[in-house]
Amino acid sequence: MIALLLRDLRLSMRAGGGFGLGLAFFLIVTVLVPLSVGPEAKLLGTIAPGILWLGALLACLLSLDRLLALDWEDGTLDLLATSPLPLEAVVSVKALAHWITTGLPLVLAAPVFGVLLNLAPPGYLWLVLSLMVGTPALSVIGTFGAALTVGLKRGGLLLSLLVLPLYVPTLVFGAEVARRGAVGMETTTPLLMLGGITMGVIALLPFASAAVLRINLR
Amino acid sequence: MTDLPLPLLDVSNLAVARGGVPVLEHVSFALYPGRALILRGPNGSGKTTLLRTLAGLQPPIEGTMTGADDQIAYAGHADGIKPTLSVLENLRFWASVFATADVDAALAGFDLTDLAHRGAGTLSAGQKRRLGLARLAVTGRPIWMLDEPTVSLDAKSVARFADQVRAHLAGGGAALMATHIDLGLDGDVFDVTPCRARPRAATMDEAFL
Questions:
Q1: Range of the domain at B47
Q2: Fewer Cβ within 10 Å of end Cβ, chain A: N or C?
Q3: Cα–Cα distance between B199 and B181 in angstroms, integer?
Q4: What is residue B19's predicted lDDT score, i.e. its pLDDT?
Q5: To the nearest whole angstrom, how far is the Cα of A217 from the nearest Cα of chain B?
Q6: Which chain A positions have a beta carbon within 8 Å of B55's beta carbon?
Q7: Are B147 and B48 members of one domain?
Q8: Cα separation, A112 vs A108, whole angstroms
Q9: Would you say residue B206 has pLDDT above 60?
């Protein structure tokens, strides 16, 4: 399993691996929003938590169609399915590798991008915390979507449509934590809900992903 | 017949389907240690489907197979090679997935030692195939299951591959392969043509088998 994780991380760092794709997209969104909304610092500060969360979510979505499709195309998935690794472990490791290459950089870069959107000072801690808690759910749900669409050519469209509704609860509670944090309100309830969603999908979805992958491999 | 050892793989009355349509039925054979079994049959007769079923990638629609669990090293049409990793990195990855360590012997066996640090994306088709076959040697599994293993190999590489299979058989392993080339192996031929299924419509939703 560690070998698979290291291989995936190494692949993403090499040429054409797609590391930084999500980060670049996140940067583009946060740079362009002030230009399109206009230079009103107060308005930007109000919408900053929502925009930052939406940008992070779309950045995650961008790299999902490569998550399993590349391994499917070159036959690696067939070989992994006949290896001693259970498919549940394979999809969990894939989700973890996706989070490390996409989610974690977003978490770390979010405070910098918060400055671009004039996020209120108390909001930074809560923004980072909510992304830290919420982005693993995005990767795990995304892996499920990727497993569902793995056999399809150009499955990216269907993948986005399948995954978006599943992303809604994470987006709602994640952005709510950041918004409440920015205006100095109590954040415990949405944070607990966000954590609960993440824990729930990490516990359950790898089994669903492995099951649909088995069907798709036939 | 003299007393044979217990078969590594025992298949009886197996029926397999592709896309919900049965392609082969009443397939029965046994695979013994040290022996190779060559599958023959025209294109589209279901050799690949049979191999994928035996490898556990899809369930059979009827029949039993004994001894297949975690014993099979499968090599299909695609080699599962990552072009941005080197030959050595590709092979080391599979060695650690299968918890074995002997990468050097596999590299030497398939004449890849000189290419070990080349990026796999720069290999020729035949070299990639050799790398894909070298993966079998690092799995440490007793049954090699090969689907057209000699595609894009030159005559010298085919001979080298046959030597590797022979060495594997001599070590008590077994091999089951679909191929049209005579590799000169000590083995039997199993022609799937008589097992072709009667044409009939798909009856069940295969996702729920």
A1: 8-71+142-209
A2: N
A3: 29
A4: 82
A5: 7
A6: 82
A7: yes
A8: 8
A9: no
Quote the percentage of chain B above a pLDDT of 70. 93
Residues B32 and B125 in one domain: no
Pick among A14, A19, A78, A212 to test the B interface (most B CBs inside 10 A)? A78
The alpha-carbon gap from A167 to the nearest alpha carbon of chain B, in Å, equals 26
CB contact under 8 A, B84 and A11: yes
- pLDDT of B1 reads 46
My answer on whether B14 and B67 are in the same domain is yes
Instruction: Show residues of chain A in contact with B207, CB under 8 Å.
Output: 215
Token pair of B85 as six digits: 């990793």
B9-58 pLDDT, tens per residue? 888 888 888 888 888 888 888 888 888 888 888 888 888 888 888 888 88
CB contact under 8 A, B79 and A74: yes
Q: Is the pLDDT of residue B106 over 60?
A: yes
Q: Which residue of A has its CA nearest to B78?
A: A75
The verdict on B155 and B183 lying in the same domain is yes
Evaluate whether residue B192 is within a structural domain.
Answer: yes
Q: Which one of B56, B96, B135 has the shortest CB-CB distance to A3?
A: B96
**DSSP reduced 3-state for B25:** strand
Residue B2 placed within a domain: no
Contact between A118 and A128 (Cβ < 8 Å): no
Judgement on whether residues B47 and B95 belong to the same structural domain of the protein: no
Distance from CA of A94 to the nearest CA of B (A): 14
The per-type count for chain B, helices as H runs and strands as E runs, is 5, 8
What's the whole-model pTM score?
Answer: 0.88
Q: Is the C-alpha dihedral spanning B168, B173, B178, B180 positive or negative?
A: positive
* E strands present in A55-151: none
> What ipTM does this complex have?
0.84
Q: How far apart are CA A115 and CA A40, in angstroms?
A: 14
DSSP letter at B65 equals E
Nearest to A58, CA basis, from A90, A91, A32, A92:
A32
